[in-house]
Design brief:
By secondary structure, this protein is mainly alpha-helical. It is about 45% helix and about 5% strand. The chain binds heme C.
């Protein structure tokens, strides 16, 4: 599952969040977030993380910057769970 997620990450996320997942890149007037699990786990659960990726809502249900794409309609929940399995290895 994490291997499939790694491929999806490369394809859809790496351009903004970087090969090491640490973000910090300037994209469309915003700074991309560090999305290593070691960082995300401080505020996100598996459920709120799916919501963040699909709907662009942060851990408190507030909208993330518009520079973060809303993946609903592009990625399936299964694909998002594969990506999360990959994030959890980091
Ligand atoms: C076009 C650039 C771009 C792409 C592509 C992108 N992101 Fe983001 N992402 C961002 C930016 C910018 C933020 C910061 C938004 C903010 O701070 O409100 C962000 C925030 C996030 C967050 C919230 C982190 C936090 O600390 O609250 C998660 C999770 C995330 N991205 C996951 C992903 C995943 C998974 C993918 C691939 C499916 C992806 N992103 C693709 C730009 C991007």
């Amino acid at each position: 599952m994490a291997a499939a997620g790694a491929k999806l990450y490369k394809q859809h996320c790496q351009s903004c969040h970087g090969a090491n997942l640490q973000g910090g890149l300037e994209v469309a007037g915003a700074t991309s977030a560090n999305i290593r699990w070691s960082e995300l786990k401080k505020s996100y659960t598996a459920t709120t993380l799916v919501r963040a990726i699909m709907q662009g809502k942060d851990e408190t249900d507030s909208p993330l910057d518009a520079a973060m794409p809303r993946w609903h309609g592009t990625l399936t929940t299964g694909q998002v769970n594969e990506i999360i399995a990959y994030l959890k290895t980091k």
